Amino acid sequence: MSDTEVLRGALEQAVVGLPEISWKRMFGCDAVFREGTIFGLIWKEGRIGLKFVESVEFEARMSNDGSSPWVPGGRPTKHWVLLPEDFASDAETLKEWASASYESII
Q1: Nearest to 45 by CA among 76, 79, 85, 89
Q2: What is the pLDDT of residue 39?
Q3: CA–CA separation, 90 vs 33, rounded Å?
Q4: What is the pLDDT of residues 47-85, one digit of tens each?
Q5: Cα 73 from chain centroid?
Q6: Radius of gyration, alpha carbons of the chain
Q7: How far is Cα 78 from Cα 89, in angstroms, rounded to an integer?
Q8: pLDDT reported for residue 45
Q9: Model-level pTM?
Q10: What is d(CA 57, CA 71) in angstroms, rounded to the nearest whole number?
């Protein structure tokens, strides 16, 4: 199993039970959507990315050790946080972050 498959499996488990979830490819990545709005992805460089629309929430998530901005193609994105790498194996923390991201987009 590849790293991206492992990460997708971890994120899939984190969003189990959330309504109106769908998956498709976006930005060359596996991405998860709420009612057609993207809120999470598996970055092809081996990290989970989540979107936090509110600037206070975004800054709070970015302040965690190991968090970094998503910078595809060298262009920083607004609202997107690449999670600390160890979160993929911490189901409880990943579920909390994924749920917060899910709630932030609608």
Answers
A1: 85
A2: 97
A3: 22
A4: 999 999 999 999 999 999 999 999 998 898 989 999 999
A5: 18
A6: 12
A7: 26
A8: 85
A9: 0.94
A10: 19
